[in-house]
Design a protein that fits this description.
This protein is α/β, with parallel strands linked by helices. It has a single domain, classed as Carbamate kinase. Helices cover about 35% and strands about 25% of the residues. It contains seven helices and 14 strands. The strands form three sheets. An eight-stranded mixed β-sheet has the order 3-6-2-1-9-13-14-12, sandwiched between helices. Strands 5-4-7-8 form a four-stranded mixed β-sheet. Strand 13 and strand 14 form a beta hairpin. Helix 1 packs across helix 3 and helix 5 packs parallel to helix 7. The protein is globular, with a radius of gyration of 17 Å.
C-alpha cells in the first residue's frame, strides 16, 4: 500500500438519493486522485432507520432487541451496496462490507454495544488488492456471534475506530452542514462557524445538543489522537477541524 489511507465517513443525509450518492462518488474519486486510498464508512440512507423502527414498533410496543438489530442493520447494508455499485461504475474498484465481515467485534449488548476490537485481516487484504472498502457503520458482531448495533449515531465511532486500526491520522466526517457553529445557525442569524476546535470544547458542544458528532466518537478520537475534519458534502472542503 503506497497510498496514504484516508477514512471518509458519510452521514445518512449525504447518501439519501441518487444525486447525493453521485456527489459522494465524485468526492471519493477526488481523494483517490489526490493520492489517498479511501476507506469509506457509511450510515443508512436518509431516514431509512426511522422507517424500519416505525415498522417494528407498529407490530410490538417492545420489540425484541436482537430482532431490532437484525432489522435496522439492513439500512447501512443498502447504503454501502449502492455506493459500491456507483463507485465500480465510475471505474473505482470497491467492495461493500458489513461490520461483521471486517471482524468488528463488540460487546454482546443489543441496541447499544461497545466496540472491543477488529479481529480480521479482511480490511487490510482488500486494501492490499487496491480495493476501496465501503464499510457499514453503526454495526458489528458481538462476542456471542450475534449481529449488534452501537448507540444511535454510532457510525462516527466506527469511523474513528477503523482509522485508528489502520493507522490513519484523521477522519473526514462528510456532513450536510458546512461546519460546527457556536449556536444553531438555523435559529440564530449571528451564529459563527468555528474553524478550529479542541476535543474538549467539541465534546461539550455535542453534549449540549450539537448533533454534528457523536460524543463517544470525540472521546475515542482524543484517546487515539485522530484529527476529525467536518467536510461539507457539496464542496468536499473542511469547515471545522477538531484536534
Amino acid at each position: 500500500m503506497n497510498k496514504q489511507i484516508c477514512v471518509l465517513k458519510f452521514g445518512g443525509n449525504t447518501l439519501a438519493n441518487k444525486e447525493k450518492i453521485l456527489l459522494a462518488v465524485k468526492l471519493i474519486k477526488q481523494r483517490w486522485e489526490e493520492g489517498c486510498l479511501p476507506v469509506i464508512v457509511a450510515s443508512a440512507n436518509g431516514n431509512f432507520t426511522d422507517i424500519l423502527l416505525d415498522n417494528a414498533y407498529s407490530l410490538s410496543p417492545d420489540p425484541n432487541k436482537r430482532e431490532l438489530d437484525m432489522l435496522i442493520t439492513t439500512g447501512e447494508r443498502i447504503s454501502v451496496a449502492l455506493l459500491s455499485i456507483a463507485l465500480n461504475e465510475a471505474g473505482l474498484p470497491s467492495v461493500s462490507l458489513t461490520g461483521s465481515q471486517i471482524g468488528l467485534i463488540t460487546t454482546s449488548t443489543h441496541a447499544g454495544a461497545q466496540i472491543v476490537e477488529i479481529k480480521s485481516d479482511r480490511l487490510k487484504r482488500e486494501l492490499e488488492q487496491g480495493h476501496i472498502p465501503i464499510i457499514a457503520g453503526f454495526q458489528g458482531i458481538g462476542q456471542n456471534k450475534e449481529i449488534t448495533t452501537l448507540k444511535r449515531g454510532g457510525s462516527d465511532v466506527s469511523a474513528v475506530f477503523i482509522a485508528s486500526f489502520l493507522g490513519a491520522d484523521h477522519v473526514e466526517m462528510i456532513k450536510d452542514v458546512d461546519g460546527v457553529y457556536d449556536k444553531d445557525p438555523n435559529k440564530n442569524k449571528d451564529a459563527k462557524k468555528l474553524n478550529l476546535l479542541d476535543f474538549d470544547v467539541m465534546y461539550k458542544l455535542a453534549l449540549e445538543g450539537a448533533n454534528v458528532l457523536h460524543p463517544d466518537a470525540i472521546t475515542l478520537a482524543k484517546e487515539k489522537g485522530i484529527e476529525i475534519r467536518i467536510i461539507y458534502y457539496k464542496t468536499g472542503v473542511a469547515g471545522t477541524i477538531i484536534k
